Amino acid sequence: MELLGTGRDADVFALGPDRVLRRSRDGRSSEREAGLMRQLVDLGYPLPRVHSAAGPELVMDRVDGPTLGEALLIGAVDASHGAGLLAGLHRDLHDLAWPGAGPGECLVHLDLHPLNVILTASGPVLIDWTNARVGRAGLDVAVTVLVLVQVGLADDALREVLLPFTEEFAARAATPYAAELAEATAFRRANPHQTEDEAARFDEAVEITRRWA
Ligand SMILES: Nc1ncnc2c1ncn2[C@@H]1O[C@H](COP(=O)(O)OP(=O)(O)O)[C@@H](O)[C@H]1O
Ligand SMILES: [Mg+2]
Fold first, then answer.
1. Together in a domain, 119 and 29
2. Do 90 and 112 sit in the same domain of this protein?
């Protein structure tokens, strides 16, 4: 099978021209994620349609286009436009009426950053729903800012693009996140997929995230 893409958690293979197979490397079941994705498609949110899920494997529509991350890095999308797109995906997700969400809660993605956004001819599509659960909208925004600052600080090549982009996103996000910063910090600290450089600059990243809240 042709390897189409790979992240920190999964490998994604082409399955003919129209579908992909995503396999989580730790063998975790994808069935909860698939159910949630089906509900979201029914609500009209932009994400790939699921065909099947069994154990760690999930088959979904293949989505064509560069990720927002790639587009930002090559300068095809500028920081302001990109930040607006990302803020719009957060807002539209958090505005959905989600079964099981209590007062002040909504569905949160918890990995809603530019490498999980594919830019298609008909608009941005959000992938990688592994972490999604019910929570407060500000938590999603805080996690996004913290992850992006961490990656930006850890990589000199990305720093110049990611930090201004992230500051712009923090300013444009529809929901303030200061109240969820502590929860975002704990959530991120527990993530096993951080690089050594990211972990080494964790406290600095939290400080910048707090400044932009
Ligand atoms: N439905 C899809 N269509 C096309 N490419 C995809 C699709 N889903 C994932 N990919 C590609 O695979 C990469 C990794 O997928 P992702 O679900 O984000 O895994 P990870 O959790 O490892 O980040 C993505 O960045 C993207 O390039
Ligand atoms: Mg991903």
1. no
2. yes
User: pLDDT tens digit string along 34-49?
Assistant: 999 999 999 999 999 9
Atom of ligand 1 nearest to the CA of 10: 22
Q: Model confidence over 117-132: pLDDT tens digits?
A: 999 999 999 999 999 9
Give the total number of structural domains in the chain.
2
Ligand 2 centre to CA of 37 (Å) is: 15
Alpha helices in 43-180 (DSSP H): 68-73, 79-95, 137-154, 156-172
Considering the domain architecture, whether residues 42 and 119 belong to the same structural domain is answered as: no
Exposed / middle / buried, residue 164 (Cβ in 10 Å: 0-12, 13-18, 19+): middle
Indicate whether this model's pTM tops 0.85.
Answer: yes
> Which residues are paired to 22 by β-bridges?
12, 58
Ligand nearest the Cα of residue 7 is 1
* Residues 66-86: tens digit of each pLDDT: 999 999 999 999 999 999 999
